[in-house]
Amino acid sequence: MSQQISFKEMLKVFGLGAVALVLGVEWFDWLMRRLRVRGPLKEVLFFPSTQTCLEHLFTPNRSFPCKCPLPHGKETSFSRLLRHLLSAHASLDLCVFSFSHMELCRMILLLHERGITVRVVTDRDYMTITGSQIGNLRRAGICVRHEMSTAVHMHHKFAIVDGKKLITGSLNWTVTAVQSNKENIMVTEEPELVRPYRLEFQQLWEANDPAKHTHRVTNGW
Amino acid sequence: MSQQISFKEMLKVFGLGAVALVLGVEWFDWLMRRLRVRGPLKEVLFFPSTQTCLEHLFTPNRSFPCKCPLPHGKETSFSRLLRHLLSAHASLDLCVFSFSHMELCRMILLLHERGITVRVVTDRDYMTITGSQIGNLRRAGICVRHEMSTAVHMHHKFAIVDGKKLITGSLNWTVTAVQSNKENIMVTEEPELVRPYRLEFQQLWEANDPAKHTHRVTNGW
Which Pfam families does UniProt cross-reference here (chains A, B) (predicted)? Predict the structure, then answer.
């Protein structure tokens, strides 16, 4: 009797074990596929980007349709870039060598008006070239710091949205870069990639704090 | 008796279930950590890079120690970049705006000598500036194509090693970029990121095939 029960028990345990194993494998496979599909954002955008109307991004609630002659309703690399910037809820840290693109400037001003904390680090020489939008950012009250050294170019072109979305590549924020050149940017939320750029930004932000360089200014440096 | 057995069975099943659950959670946690640790390569390098002796990378089998005055045995962002290039077994596709760094040129020539298939796409204007290494690559038999349009800059700065490792960022292949500027590069084997750059390279390679533009040359374009 006792042996019969043990055998029954064994059968049940093996049966349950087999079912659990099959279900487990199925569940694990499903989970891995979900993880792969919904992994951190990774998007690559190439330029030049075709010119389209972007008014709907700046004024989404306007009641009348835009009547400009540009194509409407088409998604491009540039509109994707603007959308990623628009996704900011709390902060935008921008590190860019050359910034003369008026629509990108308009976007940054819009984010600033919405209460997003915007910080900009840029190059000392390029911030004063004709068409640079750095002055417009500063006049709007956005905090901009520039590379203090005269011997070095701050050649980065990256942005970090809300501390977790990285936008980086070869693209300077100029009309030539967006509309003419062969350029690339990558947008990712992969923590291993975002973290080093966040640290680099913080380091540059602190190293180029004007308060730390006041003595140089008074000495005529 | 039958009720007593059912209760025993239930206890055993619950007990085994609990053990299986605990072991399963432990195993899943271990697996996820392993997957995270051994995920595709992701590395970020920042510049400027300190100058060190790199002779061991070019001539690893030399019997005598290098006696140059530069620091030895120190890993830097630049030595990491060279190591990633050196990891090529079959191919290197390089898309770079400005290429005047002699050590990077030496590395490309070394790979070419080793039988690695090297293809280079570069900018039309910048390939002829003083110090450009493009001529040296061509003289060594490496196939270089340049952006054909006069109105456009080929401003990319990326390389693909063996079709699966992407090196991309703000860094041009110049001494100023490596030793002075604030620059970044990202090295990744994440297929979702590598694939678009591979396609972009192929597209640029084909679009700038001189055979397709011969009529322009004969017409004096």
Answer: PLDc_2
Domain that holds residue A55: 42-209
- d(CA A79, CA A101) in angstroms, rounded, equals 14
Q: Which value does ipTM take for this structure?
A: 0.82
Contact assignment for A156 to B183 by CB distance below 8 Å: yes
For residue B22, being part of any structural domain is answered with no
pTM of the model: 0.83
The per-residue DSSP string of A77-105 comes to HHHHHHHHHHT-SSEEEEEES-B--HHHH
What CATH number has the domain bearing residue B199?
Answer: 3.30.870.10
- Neighbour-count burial for B183-217, b at 16+ CB within 10 Å, e otherwise: bbbbbbbbebbbebbbebbeebbeebeeeeeeeee
In a domain, B131, yes or no: yes
Quick check: is B197 in a domain? yes
Structure confidence at residue B37 (pLDDT) = 58
The per-residue pLDDT for A218 is 45
Residue type, B49: S
> Chain-centre distance of CA B109, in angstroms?
17
Write out pLDDT tens, residues B162-188.
Answer: 999 999 999 999 999 999 999 999 999
Smallest CA–CA distance, residue B168 to chain A, in Å, is: 7
> Which of B156, B170, B196 is facing A157, going by the closest CB pair?
B170
pLDDT, tens digit (0-9, with 9 covering 90-100), for A54-87: 999 998 887 777 889 999 989 999 999 999 999 9
Q: Which residues in chain A have their CB less than 8 angstroms from residue B169's CB? A: 168-170
* B7 falls within a domain: no
Residues of A in contact with B38 (CB under 8 A): none
